[in-house]
Amino acid sequence: MKKLAILGCTGSIGTQTIDIVRHNRDKYEVVALSCRSSAERLIELAKEFDCKTLGIYDETKVREVRAALPNVKVFGGDDALTAVLDGCDTAVVAVVGMIGLKAVLAALDMKKTVALANKESLVAGGKLVTEKGGIVCPVDSEHSAVWQCLRGEKKFKRIILTASGGPFYFTPSNELESVTPERAVAHPNWSMGRKISVDSATMMNKGLELIEARWLFGTTDIDYVIHPESVVHSMVEFEDGSIKAQAGFPDMRQPIQYALTYPDHAPREYTPLALPLSLGFLPPDEEKFRAPALAKQAIKTGGLAGTVLNAANEAAVRLFLERKIHFTDIVDIVEDTLGKTELSGGDTAEEIYSVHNRIYGLIYSKYRGN
Ligand code: MG
Question: Ligand 1 (ion): which residues have CB within 5 A?
C-alpha cells in the first residue's frame, strides 16, 4: 500500500486524484488530506477515507474541523502544507500558487516522493527544488508526456511542449481587452481551476510550463507548438531526428495516475481515442500572446526572473478575477514588472518568499482600488 498525502485535495487535481484512489483502494491509503479553506468537504473526505491527519490552511477553520473529528490530528497555516506530510510515502502537491513551494521543499527534506501538480514551486523556486535532489514525478500533462517519452533514453536534443492555445487563440487581438473572467475560465478541452484557466487563456500557463520543463529535465532547449486538439501532450526530439510524442484522450487522470504508479502504466477505465483522427500543429503567435516569450526570456535570465514573473502573474490574475484590471493588462503587468525589477539572486527560500511577497504586494496594492 502506498501511503498518500494529498495537498489541495478539494481542488481540480486533488479531486481527480481522489477519484483515482477511490478506484484503487487496495493500492493506496490516504494518510493525510489538506486544503485551503473548504472545511465541510475536507471533513467529508476524511470520513470517507478514514484519514487521521488533516490540514486546513485557513486557521479560522481549524476549530470547526477539530469539533467534527475529535480523534483526528488537524493542522492549520503552514503546518497544513508541511507537518501533515509526516506519515506519507508520496506527497501529491496539488495546491495552487506559490505556497506550493513550502510543501515541496518540506516533502523533499523529509525524503518523500513528490507527485507535483503545483507549477509555481518550480517556476519560482526551481533551482532550490532541483538542488534537493529527491524524486519529483510531474503530474502536469505536458511534463508527464515528456517524462514518458524519456523513459529508457539517455540523451535528447530538444523538448517540444504542445499548447492548446487556450480559448482565445483564434479571437482577434482587438477583442481580447474586453474578455471577462467568466469567458476566460471556460476552457474548451480541459476542466481546471480558475487560476490555471486564466493562465491558459493568456498562455502564461505555457510560459510557466516552459520554465517548469527547464527544471524538471535540465535543459534550456525547449520550444512549444500550438496543437488545438490537446491529443499529443508533448514531444521529445532526439539527436538522430527522431521525435517521440505521447498522446491520449485529454484527461488529467492519466498523468495523475502515472505519477502514482510510475514506472508502470497501470490499468484504469479510460476514454479511448477515436481513430482515425486528424490533428493540427500550428505556429505560436507571439505578438498576440507574449507570455511564453517572456518565460523563455526568464529562463535565459535565470536568478529571480521566474520568481518575479510568477509573483507578478499571480497578483495580476487575482486582480483580473476581481475585475480590477482588463484581461490584456495581465501580461502587460508581468512584462513591465520584469523590466524594472532587479533579477539577480534567489539562492535561498527566504529570499524567494520575500521577493514574491514584495512583488505580489506592490502590484496588488497598486490596482486594488480600481
Ligand atoms: Mg499543462
Answer: 140-142
User: How far does the centroid of ligand 1 lie from the alpha carbon of residue 293, in Å?
Assistant: 17
* Chain length of the chain: 370
Mean pLDDT within 104-128: 96
CA of 209 to the centre of ligand 1 (A): 7
Measuring CA to CA, how many Å separate 100 from each of 55, 220, 307? Answer: 14, 23, 13
What is the value of pTM for the model shown? 0.94
Measured in Å, residue 348 CA sits from the centre of ligand 1 at 27
Expressed in angstroms and rounded, the spacing between residue 140 Cα and the centre of ligand 1 is 5
CA distance 151 to 262: 11
Tell me how far the alpha carbon of residue 59 lies from the centroid of ligand 1, in angstroms: 31
Residue 188 has pLDDT above 90, yes or no: no
142 Cα to the center of ligand 1, angstroms: 5
Q: Distance from the CA of 73 to the center of ligand 1, in angstroms?
A: 34
Res. 316: pLDDT tops 90: yes
pLDDT in tens, 285-298: 999 999 999 999 99
**Average pLDDT of the residues in 154-166:** 96
